[in-house]
User: Which sequence fits this backbone?
């Protein structure tokens, strides 16, 4: 547990509260509330999509969303602020990627939500959730995405304890991280 960093021969200690928040199993109760809330948000969003054939069968819902966001209006600002991202979405539209991408989004949201609620590979699930939030924000769909993104970042940073009250208690021990193996104070 590196609570001290060395920079230009000076020790820089982590603030005690931040060290506790991201490393102490006692902080897992805070992360449990945030993790379950975020997981519920993902499951709720996914169920609206999974139960809609325009998402899971044809991809028409995603095609419509992409078609609307790539348009550059004559006046005002376009939904997508970056030209490279607009080009990327246009390439996906031209390739008709919405046919396979829409179900991927719908079921991906469900998997992220379930993993977060169960506390299974929490840091990884939060990363994929944050990645989806980032893409929604890049597409100009702010909605609740910034808040969900911030919570996901917290879960990523607290990966060692954010799933401690959950399946990560067993999974991370099984795969050998972070509680199994050599202690931090030991040198090879």
Assistant:
């Amino acid at each position: 547990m590196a609570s001290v960093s060395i920079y230009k021969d000076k020790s820089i200690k982590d603030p005690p509260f931040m060290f506790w928040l991201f490393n102490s199993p006692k902080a897992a109760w805070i992360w449990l509330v945030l993790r379950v809330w975020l997981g519920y948000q993902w499951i709720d969003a996914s169920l609206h999509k999974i139960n809609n054939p325009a998402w899971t069968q044809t991809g028409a819902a995603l095609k419509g969303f992409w078609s609307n966001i790539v348009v550059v209006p004559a006046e005002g600002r376009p939904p997508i602020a970056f030209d490279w991202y607009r080009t990327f979405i246009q390439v996906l539209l031209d390739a008709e990627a919405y046919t396979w991408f829409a179900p991927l989004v719908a079921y991906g949201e469900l998997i992220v939500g379930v993993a977060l609620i169960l506390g299974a590979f929490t840091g990884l699930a939060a990363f994929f959730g944050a990645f989806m939030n980032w893409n929604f924000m890049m597409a100009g769909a702010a909605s609740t995405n910034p808040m969900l993104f911030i919570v996901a970042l917290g879960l990523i940073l607290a990966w060692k304890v954010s799933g401690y009250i959950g399946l990560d208690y067993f999974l991370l021990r099984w795969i050998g991280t972070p509680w199994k193996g050599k202690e931090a104070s030991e040198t090879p």
Residues 34 and 151 are 7 Å apart (CA to CA). Confidence is low (pLDDT under 50) at residues 181-188. The chain is about 65% helix and 5% strand.
